[in-house]
Structures are given as structure tokens and as C-alpha cells.
Amino acid sequence: MAVMFAAREVRKVYDMGTVQVHALRGVSFEIEQGEMVAIMGPSGSGKSTLMQIMGALDKPTGGAVFLDGEDITTAPDDRLAEIRNRKIGFVFQQFNLLPRLTAVENVELPLMYAGVGRAERRRRAIELLERVGLGHRLHHRPNELSGGQKQRVAIARALANNPAVILADEPTGALDSRTGAEIMALLKELHAQGNTVVIVTHDREIASHAERIIHIRDGLIVEDERLSAGRKKPYTAGDGPSGQGGSGAAS
Amino acid sequence: MSVLDTIRTAIHSLRANPLRSILSMLGIIIGVAAVVSVVSIGTGGQQQVLANIGQLGSNLITVMPRVPRGTAGRVQQDVRSMFTVAMAEDMERLLPDVINVVPVVTTRGRLVAGGVNVQATLVGVTSPYTEVMNYRVADGRFISEWDVSAQQPVIVLGAELAKDLFEDADPVGQEIIAVVGNRRQVLRVVGVMEPRGQAMGGDLDSQAYLPVSTMMDRIMKTRSVSYFAAQARGSERAAEAVAQVEFFLRRRLGSTDYFRVISQDQILETMSAVTQTLSLMLGGIAGISLVVGGIGIMNIMLVSVTERTREIGIRKALGAKRRTILFQFLVEAVTLSALGGVLGLALGWVGARVIGYIGGWPGVVTAGSVAVALGFSTAVGLFFGIYPAMKASRLDPVQALSFE
Ligand SMILES: Nc1ncnc2c1ncn2[C@@H]1O[C@H](COP(=O)(O)OP(=O)(O)OP(=O)(O)O)[C@@H](O)[C@H]1O
Ligand SMILES: [Mg+2]
Q1: Which atom of ligand 1 is the closest one to the Cα of A49?
Q2: Burial B4-33 (b: 16+ CB within 10 A, else e)
Q3: Looking at the domain A35-51+76-239, which fold is it?
């Protein structure tokens, strides 16, 4: 399988003037295409920092990250914007939907920045929302949606440009455990469809849905754990895409 | 991202906060309205002035004695004394393109009719005065040639003056006492002039007209006149007429320093220049308010950028490039200012009409002032929008995303 991510001795130092915070102290790993990986560690261990660097939102202080063979630590700003737009789908703990836009308009955003025409954009956004079970909430604004529904909109948005990888930072962090399990089921389904999924979490329970857990502590990888492949852990709520329990998805 | 998408996004953002959008436009609205109405007042006022000058008389040439700079009272006396009725007659007789040279004598005096007592300007003239000044009698008759040659004690009243002295009664045939200095003269009213309104060269309506001979010999005891009001043979002969008058006077008085010839063309030119300068100045002041409006927009845009830091972070995470963000915020600023320009234009047009209605001239809004107002407001939006937009586009995505 092709290597999707290759991190080489990635370091990140936050210079706070008097003190320097070493968030990452030389992290190296590879993630292959189609993998579902959890990056796990306690609070402050550098998980989010790593994800921001992998997602081309931030640049490391040292080392390099290759995405699909391209060094994303030296690319110019405009290229980084393109990489974020085409190759990466972000899912955030706080959803990060634009409050004034409807669900379908939020999903259209990455398509708009990719230069997709209006009609095509709308068609694809509706398709994506239907895929995450929100075909009946197209024109709702974020404040008219439940937490789980918001995260589904965010996942649909992350998928908009068929990204190479989905980066999810604590995607269940703002959700109750049952809704969180539904979201995990959705991410697993996307993985089953061939997407590369990276999930950042401090929760062993969430991490155990992945095939592999990269343990990180104080800015260093302490363990690269491979769980026996596939559905080792049963879903805790619902069972795959067709059985999205209480989410109220239209069939 | 297409230009159309950017504009749509910008308008969407502005519509999310309509009250703020309107308030931030207010400065531009007022600025543009001020520019448009001030320019309109200038143009309308100028047309009014030109119309007034046109009323003054067909091809009027005014000839006045002038005291050269640096000379004392003696010389002045000499020059003035050479402006006589005889000289007027000579000019009329000798100059081929000049007709109707009217010697004019003016003085302030008191007119008494019954119990009413009014201060007025008394003007001694000859009968062609009405033709030269393009002035008409409403009631009775004007000063006749015989009145002048026989020094008749008659008087013709301006419309306003007639009203002041006699209210609604018919003044023609009534007697009036003119008091100038310590001299009194009983005069018979023979006519009332048509109202003329405020015109260049004084308010004709509140003046009284007498035979020039009566004024000079019976009331003022003087031999010289105040000025000559002459008429060119036709507008196409006006320049020649002026040249002939100047030639004649230089010969008679010895120098061009001792007189001044003012033709209608000159007045037109001077007045146009004056009103244009005035419009420009007022327009400039109004333009400053446009700049102030621009600063208002900049202020709002800066607040907006700060408030929407997280939105900017999200957009960047989703693939918006720097220039996309820059363009979005710039379009918002320009949309605000251009829309403000359009609203200001509408307001200015209404203002121009209202002020024109009050001032009695058409409230003209020229294509030029429309173009300048819209062009300027758009430019103001661009200029003051660029800084906030740059600030937005330069935000670091990670920091913007973690903004509370
Ligand atoms: N912008 C920043 N400036 C300074 N220090 C930072 C900044 N961002 C993160 N850090 C520090 O870097 C370290 C790693 O932070 P990071 O957010 O990556 O942790 P995390 O593993 O995601 O923690 P959590 O599970 O609480 O989200 C922490 O000590 C944090 O205080
Ligand atoms: Mg974190």
C-alpha cells in the first residue's frame, strides 16, 4: 500500500518569550493509504499540534511531513490552502460550522473554494448530507441542529472534495457517549469505503475503533500499537450506516 | 473561487447584520448626498445668476468713472465731472455700434406719500432706460423725452416701492415728496414698473425713476452723472461697441485709467468663475465628509474582522487562500461604500430638488456629479477597505481557529 503520511523527526517549539514549550520533540511515523489510525495521549501531549501540522494548518519548527509524497512543511501558503482544500478533510471537536450558513451551504464551502460551479456544488452537497444521514436537515442552520447532527454536517463537509485523508481532532469530545459512538460508526464506515482516517483522542474507548494506535506522550511517540485488523471492537450503538439508531435519519 | 461567488459571499455577510451595514454606510450616504446637493445648488445657482444677467438688458454696456490707484480726491473730482449728459449724447451720436446711451444719476433719499415714509434709491434716467435694461412698465407710463427736456417733476416707482408707499391703492396720479439732503421736491407718480425680482446690479423693484434733468438740476444740483448705461446695436456687435466706447473715452479722458467699461459678457464670465469656484469649494468640503465616511467603513470592517476571526480560520482550513479572504472583505467594504453612494445619490437628489424648490431654480443633478459621487464612494471603499481585508487575509489559521 502507498504511504499517505510520512512524518520525519517533526518538532514543534512554541516560543513564549521567557519559556519555550516543546510540544513535539521529534516524531516520526508513516500512515498508509486506507488506514484508520488513532493518535492517543494525555492532555497536553501534543496531539492537536501534530494534527495541525499533518493538516497543513501549521508548520513544524523542524523535520518534515510528506503527504502523498509532497513535502507540506516547505510549500508556499497558496499551495497549503490547496492541499487543505483538496487533500484533507477536517473534523473538529467544536464542529466549526459557519453559524449563518445552512447545513448544505456549509458543505458547499470547500467545493466553492475548489471552484466547483453552483449547481454541481449544491448537487454534491445534498448527496453528501444524504450519505451522512442528514437528507432531511439540508436547510437547517447549525443552531437548529443537535451536536451529533452538527458533527455529521462537518463530516459531510470534510468529504466534499474527496480528500486523501480525514483528520478528526476529538470528533466525539463535545458529544454524549451514544452520539459519539454513532459518529465513530460513521467514521469507521468511511474507512471501510477506503478512506484514510486519522483520529486524535485521549479516550482509549474511541481509539480502540482504529486498526492502529500511535501513543504519544510529552511530544514523543511512546508506542505504535497495532490492533488485530478489522472490527475487533463491536459498535456500541447502532450497527453501521443502515442502523444509525436514534439519529432520526430518513431512510 | 469565482468572482461571483466572492460577491455573493460578501453580500450574504452584509445581510446577516443589516442594521450595522446601514449604520456603517451612513457616513458615505451623507457625504455623497452632500456632494450631489452642493454641486446641484452650485449649478442651479449659476443658471439662476446667468438668467438674471440675461434679464439685465439686451447687450448692456455699463460705463463708470474710475479713480486710478494712488490719486487723491482732486483727480477723482475731475474725472467724475467729465461724465456728463452731453458726453452721453456725444457717444450715442458718434459711435456707430452704440445706441441708447442713458446717463444715470443715483442718490439715496426719502419718499413721503401721505403718512408713509420710505428710504429709497432715486435713479435719474432718460426714456430709453426701459429698453436698455429690458424693463417694462406695469401701470401708467415711463419717463418720456419731454419729461427730461422740461425737467418735469414726475416719478416712476419700482413694484416693491409702490407697494411700500401705497399698499394696494393705485399710485398713478398721486403726489409724492422726495427728500434728498435738505431739499424737498414734490413729484407726481406717472407709472409703476413690473416686478423684476432680485437682479444683478441692485434691486430694481425698490428703486424710483425720475427724469435725469429733474434729478440733476432740481434735486441734486449737480452737473455730472454717476454712470452711463449704453446698449450695443446687437449681440454680434457687442465687442465692437465696447471697443468704440473705450476708444472714445480714451480720447476724451486721456487715459484708460479713468473709466471702466463692463459688458454683459464680462459679467457673465466673472460670475461663472465665481460660482464655479464656490461650487468647487463647497464640493471639496462635502468631499471631506466622504473621507470621514470611508473611515467609518474602515472602523466597522476592522471590528468585523476581529469578530469573525474564527470564521476566517474555518474558511482557511477549508481551503480559502489569502487572496480569497482579502477579496471577500474588500468586496464587503466596496459593497458598503458603493451602496452608500447609491443611497446618498438618491438622498442628494431629493435634497437638490427641495433646495432648488426653495431657491427657485431647477434641482439639477448632472451626470457628472453622479459619476463623481459613485466613483469616489467606490474608491473610498477600496482605499479604506484594503487594510482590514489585508488584516483578515493574514490571520494565522491555527490561531484564528482557536479564537473564542
Ligand atoms: N499556540 C500555542 N502557544 C503556546 N503553547 C502551545 C500552543 N498550542 C499548544 N501549546 C502547548 O503545546 C503543548 C501541546 O498542546 P496540544 O494542544 O498539542 O495538546 P493536546 O495533546 O492536543 O492536548 P488536549 O488533549 O488537551 O487537546 C501543550 O503544552 C500546550 O500548552
Ligand atoms: Mg488537543
Answers
A1: 18
A2: ebbbebbeebbeeeeeebeebbebbbbbbb
A3: Rossmann fold (3.40.50)
